[in-house]
Design brief:
Helices cover 8% and strands 38% of the residues. The chain is mainly beta. The chain has a domain of 233 residues: Tachylectin-2, Chain A. Strands 12, 13, 18, 19, 20, 21 and 22 form a seven-stranded mixed sheet that branches.
Amino acid sequence: MRRTLRRASLVLVCAFVAGAQLADTSWPIGPFARPDAGNPVIAPNPASVFADPIRKSPVHWEALHTFNPAAVVRNGVVDVLYRAEDDTGAMQIGMHTSRLGLAESADGIHFTRLPTPMFYPADDGQDSREWPGGVEDPRVVEREDGTYVLTYTQWNRVTYSVGIATSRDLEHWTKYGPAFLEAEGGKYANLKYKSAGIVTALRDGRLIADRIEGKYWMYWGEGAIHLATSSDLIRWTPVEDARGEPIEVLRPRAGRFDSSFPETGPPPVLTRRGIVVIYNGKNATSGGDPNLAANTYAAGEALFDAKNPAKLLARTEDPVLQPTLPYEKTGQYSAGTTFAEGLVYFHDRWFLYYGCADSLVAVVTASESAAAQRR
């Protein structure tokens, strides 16, 4: 009898563990798959011309590369804001001028784009931070009142920071300067930082910036991922540790795809299981993932506590998106990149938009997951 009870108990324990393991793997958004046709969804167009307000002359603003996209659902279609590089400057990464283009799609795959950029360096008070490098790597969220909030990299080829801008229509923007400019009495005014995603939640089919404990939250940074909070989505303050340094909530892992350089991806999503953060990881030149080439960027997911955004609960062991196609494995960034930056929920599916080797824009999709719905 004791052996029978023991065996029954063991079965129950094993069933519980199996159930826990199943639950532990149910939180990520995905799995993602490439559509049968349509990729890459945005490619360079050397014919596009823009009268640049600083140069005072026409430029081929998306002649060389189009990549690293943000995305939002608006008026029943997907709008993608993508980084475009012109054909000026030296032929190396970061030495062309970047502007942001806008493209629209009724199915999330086939896009029609505006002929000129909708966000760019200009004589607007931010030109000293944005010229000649430009505006890079956008993420965009919708506020409760329908206003769009953009986080992007301001790059003047000397220093860089996360800039904040708002718009009602995605075409006309107000710039506010660096996110941390006024934080802690100017403590972070000279900090170099980039890659910022504001926490959202799925409401009526759209991802809306959401509060936790009365505050908006932002995951930001590269090399390690940090946190910041805001009451208005414009002025942000880094969350600090006991030493007065920005806390690190996600760090590199030896032997994994993110072994040297985790970096914030698209705006995170607050779900029933917690905060899902899709992030980009760089593989180390040694001691990294042996299945990926050195310096390759792939995307993973991390889960943080819904009430304590600094508390890491789980993390995918392997990438959820990695370079497999020729234009993902090499391009302007020769080591290969699937750099995720834009996430939307559209037609009952998730659409994740990403940059391919700093050269093109592509998309993967996933079916709805109950775990990824709002709490």
